[in-house]
Amino acid sequence: MRRIMLIDDYLASKSKELARWNAELVEAGRDPINTRRATNLGTFRAYVQHYLTSHPNIRQDMTLLVRQLQPTEAGLPIEIYAFTATTAWGEYETIQSDIFDHLLAILPEFGLKLFQAPTGSDLARLIAAQ
User: What is the CA radius of gyration of the chain?
Assistant: First the structure.
């Protein structure tokens, strides 16, 4: 992940934070199961936050947050809350689409997959392929 420029500083900082935390646990004689670890999901959230912070069409003076919501049978939702630098509807839709196109395209780089429940013709193709 260190090759991803937007999160290089985040990864260095997180690595130091986890090393300190885990060293204290070991010194206290705690079981290694109690250690903290970086995750692909947490790293992806950090990437999205940094991506939006560096995006020229996202307002930096207004609320911007990326968080995970409660897991469901459909997966673990990620919520993005941000404001565009324009209120023109067409431009807003283009900015939003471009952001999601990018994020969906890079999911595999983080070892993550988009969840989509098969229905209708998708399900028929799946059954026919068996």
Answer: 19
Q: What is the pLDDT of residues 63-73, one digit of tens each?
A: 999 999 999 98
Give the residue ranges of DSSP H helices in the chain. 8-27, 40-53, 89-106, 120-129
How far apart, in Å, are the Cα atoms of 91 and each of 36, 46, 51, 85, 117? 42, 26, 19, 9, 30
Amino acid at 59: R
Report the distance separating Cα 82 and Cα 66, nearest Å: 9
Would you give the DSSP letter of residue 32?
G
- Ramachandran area for residue 71 (φ above 0: left; ψ -120 to 50: alpha; else beta): beta
pTM of the model: 0.81
Using alpha carbons, select from 30, 21, 4 the residue that is nearest to residue 110. Answer: 4
17 vs 4, higher pLDDT: 17
Nearest partner of 35 among 18, 59, 58, 60, judged by Cα: 18
- Contact between 58 and 52 under an 8 Å Cβ cutoff? The reply is yes
Say how many CA atoms lie within 13 Å of 75 toward its Cβ. 10
